[in-house]
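Figure 6 in text form: structure in, sequence out.
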């Protein structure tokens, strides 16, 4: 295999680092495909005119980061299953090198070029994938959805035109306001509901409107990586706050050195992502009290609170707030399907106008037809019926998964979190690295995700997120059984 590597003797980067970067880039942009054998250190050293130890140093780094794997007696290969936190972004230098017309990027653009994991490309389809956050798509009532689509397609042409409502289709905002006030205890008028392109757009708009580069955002550690990536792209300074079995340790936040300067707190109180903890009531009250005193705002991401098995759901933080401190974010990605790309942001009244303007400038509005269909789906009771059905299915799937994990791994496994959601976080007591486990599992057709990418400062290993929403009983049991072939204590 030939690979063009250009080394620059005048570069401040040492030669082994240059080789590392070039091979890494070749892997990430697909020039070196998974499974491809690469030259031995001896061949590479000869081809580049450098010492073998220089090449060995760069290969070792690539091996430890999970880009390469060695097969004893055969050689060194590009990993067949690249770990989660590999991504397709190139460092600024290499993009500029490839760009004859040296483009000047904004600060946002520069940050984005240097941000790992955008987009997150960790999802090779394997036979059994414990992907997180996926509902059981094969249980979605497609016929019913189609019937509603037909109805709106045929009765009026309104859905073909621009909407004049920057906040979103009014009947949908009304239906959502009624629904979330009843099931989540949210205090709002339909005029405070902004229909967004999922949680992701809600977060993007919030940060665009409220954060300057260098402003401080506190967030859970570990926490939802896709939220963190937005904050980082806008240049926010991140303040990670640890979580325990009762959720965010609010005490650490309110006593942090930065406590007076925190602009925003991003939190998943109903089902902490990824640990699954539920923020206790005393902590909720302490957080709201602190926010009202400091003027900080709280982003409440309520992404899967519909799925709670056993106990009654705890009402949302927003419903306890008397000081307009909470921006509440909900989504239909888990209760319906992710490609619908419909979520909602409940905005304090004094901020509605500015959010409506930002949304309008950003993308005008979402497709009207899907909003019309979703309105009926909610108003006619289909949504809650579907959620009820799915709740008992996921409850069962969770039990199957937990039982299989405990049966096969016994004392070596700790299952975190409350009985809720579509995933569990699991701590495995093993000497193997996360990459060894992921790669070993992939060879057996099983996909699992390390929780390390959900940490801002990853220094904990052996934690995995197991999504179970889309796997049936047999897949769950077989998937865990196969893991026993590779995970050793
Ligand atoms: C914490 C959290 N928030 C929100 C979402 C959903 O995002 P979206 O509404 O953009 O699909 C997910 C999906 O996995 C999530 O894990």
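Output sequence:
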């Amino acid at each position: 295999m030939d690979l063009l590597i250009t080394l620059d003797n005048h570069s401040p980067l040492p030669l082994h680092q240059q080789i590392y970067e070039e091979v890494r880039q070749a892997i990430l942009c697909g020039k070196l495909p998974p499974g491809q054998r690469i030259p031995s250190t001896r061949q590479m050293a000869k081809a580049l005119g450098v010492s073998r130890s220089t090449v060995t140093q760069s290969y070792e780094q690539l091996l430890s980061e999970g880009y390469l794997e060695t097969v004893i007696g055969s050689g060194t290969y590009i990993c067949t299953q690249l770990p989660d936190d590999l991504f397709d972004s190139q460092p600024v230098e290499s993009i500029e090198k490839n760009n004859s017309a040296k483009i000047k990027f904004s600060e946002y653009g520069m940050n984005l070029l240097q941000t790992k994991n955008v987009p997150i490309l960790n999802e090779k389809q394997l036979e059994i994938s414990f992907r997180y956050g996926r509902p059981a798509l094969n249980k979605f009532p497609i016929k019913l959805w189609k019937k509603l689509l037909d109805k709106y397609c045929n009765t009026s042409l309104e859905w073909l035109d621009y909407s004049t409502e920057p906040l979103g289709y009014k009947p949908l905002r009304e239906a959502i306001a009624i629904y979330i006030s009843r099931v989540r205890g949210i205090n709002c008028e339909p005029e405070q509901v902004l229909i967004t392109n999922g949680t992701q757009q809600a977060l993007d708009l919030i940060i665009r409107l409220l954060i300057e580069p260098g402003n401080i955002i506190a967030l859970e550690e570990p926490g939802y990586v896709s939220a963190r990536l937005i904050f980082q792209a806008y240049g926010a300074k991140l303040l990670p706050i640890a979580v325990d079995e009762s959720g965010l340790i609010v005490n650490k936040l309110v006593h942090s050195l930065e406590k007076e300067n925190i602009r925003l707190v991003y939190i998943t109180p109903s089902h902490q992502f990824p640990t699954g903890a539920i923020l206790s009531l005393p902590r909720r009250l302490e957080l709201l009290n602190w926010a009202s005193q400091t003027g900080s705002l709280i982003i409440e991401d309520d992404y899967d609170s519909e799925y709670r098995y056993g106990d009654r759901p705890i009402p949302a933080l927003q419903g306890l707030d008397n000081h307009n401190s909470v921006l509440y974010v909900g989504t239909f990605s888990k209760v319906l399907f992710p490609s619908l790309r419909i979520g909602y942001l409940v905005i304090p009244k004094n901020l509605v106008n500015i959010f409506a303007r930002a949304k309008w400038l950003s993308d005008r509005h979402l497709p009207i037809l899907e909003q019309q269909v979703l309105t009926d789906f909610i108003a006619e009771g289909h949504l809650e019926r579907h959620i009820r059905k799915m709740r008992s299915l996921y409850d069962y799937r969770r039990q199957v998964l937990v039982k299989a994990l405990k049966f096969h791994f016994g004392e070596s496994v700790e299952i975190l979190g409350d009985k809720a959601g579509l995933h569990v976080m699991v701590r495995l007591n093993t000497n193997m690295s996360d990459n060894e486990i992921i790669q070993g599992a992939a060879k057996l057709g099983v996909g699992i995700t390390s929780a390390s990418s959900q940490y801002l400062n990853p220094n904990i290993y052996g934690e995995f997120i197991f999504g179970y929403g889309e796997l049936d009983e047999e897949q769950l049991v077989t998937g865990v059984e196969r893991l026993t072939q590779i995970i050793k204590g």
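Caption detail: The CA atoms of residues 219 and 228 lie 8 Å apart.
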